[in-house]
């Protein structure tokens, strides 16, 4: 069973960043946003920016043997993506090579840009941590993205929805600020698997500050993070936002003042 840990959901965007390599005026920068490591799966979320037209991110996870040497457990690579800012999770599975709890692991990530007919290393980052199975059972990740831009400054929340009202309610997993004109690209790790989750947008500027639910691509069916779907992309748009049909909870910290 794929397992994701709730450890190290890092607020600081860049833990370890290597200097970018420039080629013909093109640059890029990559950092580790969060890492969740268990005995048979590690999920690393990376963030950064690039001016290369075609890019990819490669990731490796190593375990340390009794001699202090790092041995490869698993590797993966993303699909190609374009220039600009990015934030995405990579799932590294090492089923059949599970490590013991507390084992030392090293995670290495590299941003590569296409130069001519091949990819070149642009930026890299690495971190070490210990594998843990505490709270690892049935944890999943979600990547929230919008195909349009925020009409106003605001807050994006992701909640495990429960209750009988169509409004923001449930277990709050993340809250992220966004500026007018920005697209959302946000990764959340260590969500309970198979729980229904909904994203809500709370405008903090402008005349209309009514929160809106940002429906996932499966709407009107609900969205649930699963073990089978890796990063669980939640794709939505501000233009399709739906207003709540019930008053907000009285203790909602993001409700309009």
SSE arrangement:
Layout: E1 28-37, E2 41-50, E3 55-64, E4 70-77, E5 84-93, E6 104-115, E7 118-130, E8 139-146, E9 154-161, E10 170-178, E11 185-192, E12 196-203, E13 212-214, E14 223-224, E15 233-236
Parallel strand pairs: 8-15
Antiparallel strand pairs: 1-2, 2-5, 3-4, 3-6, 6-7, 8-11, 9-10, 9-12, 12-13, 12-14
The N- and C-terminal alpha carbons lie at a distance of 45 Å
- Class by alpha and beta content: mainly beta
CATH topology of the largest domain: Immunoglobulin-like
Number of domains: 2
Corresponding CATH architecture of the largest domain: Sandwich
Fraction of residues in β-strands: over 45%
Task: Explain the overall architecture.
The chain has strands spanning 28-37, 41-50, 55-64, 70-77, 84-93, 104-115, 118-130, 139-146, 154-161, 170-178, 185-192, 196-203, 212-214, 223-224, 233-236. It has no helices and 15 strands. Strand 6 and strand 7 (118-130) form a beta hairpin. The termini are far apart. It has 2 domains: 28-130, Sandwich (Immunoglobulin-like), CATH 2.60.40; 139-240, Sandwich (Immunoglobulin-like).
């Amino acid at each position: 069973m794929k397992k994701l840990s709730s450890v190290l959901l890092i607020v600081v965007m860049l833990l370890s960043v290597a200097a970018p390599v420039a080629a013909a005026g093109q640059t890029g920068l990559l950092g580790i946003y969060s890492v969740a490591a268990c005995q048979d799966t590690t999920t690393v979320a990376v963030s950064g920016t690039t001016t290369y037209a075609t890019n990819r991110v490669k990731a490796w996870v190593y375990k340390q043997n009794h001699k202090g040497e790092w041995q490869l457990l698993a590797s993966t690579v993303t699909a190609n993506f374009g220039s600009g800012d990015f934030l995405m999770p990579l799932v590294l599975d090492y089923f059949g090579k599970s490590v013991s709890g507390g084992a030392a692991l090293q995670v290495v990530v590299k941003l590569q840009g296409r130069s001519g007919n091949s990819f070149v290393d642009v930026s890299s980052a690495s971190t070490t941590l210990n594998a843990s199975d505490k709270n690892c059972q049935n944890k999943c990740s979600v990547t929230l993205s919008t195909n349009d831009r925020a009409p106003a400054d605001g807050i994006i929340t992701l909640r495990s929805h429960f209750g009988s009202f169509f409004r923001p309610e449930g277990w709050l997993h993340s809250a992220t600020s966004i500026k007018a004109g920005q697209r959302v690209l946000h990764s959340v790790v260590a969500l309970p698997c198979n729980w229904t989750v909904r994203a809500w947008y709370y405008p903090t500027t402008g005349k209309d500050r009514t929160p809106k639910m940002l429906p996932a691509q499966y709407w009107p069916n609900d969205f649930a993070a699963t073990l089978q779907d890796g990063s669980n992309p939640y794709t939505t748009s501000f233009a399709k936002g739906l207003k709540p049909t019930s008053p907000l909870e009285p203790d909602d910290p993001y409700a309009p003042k």
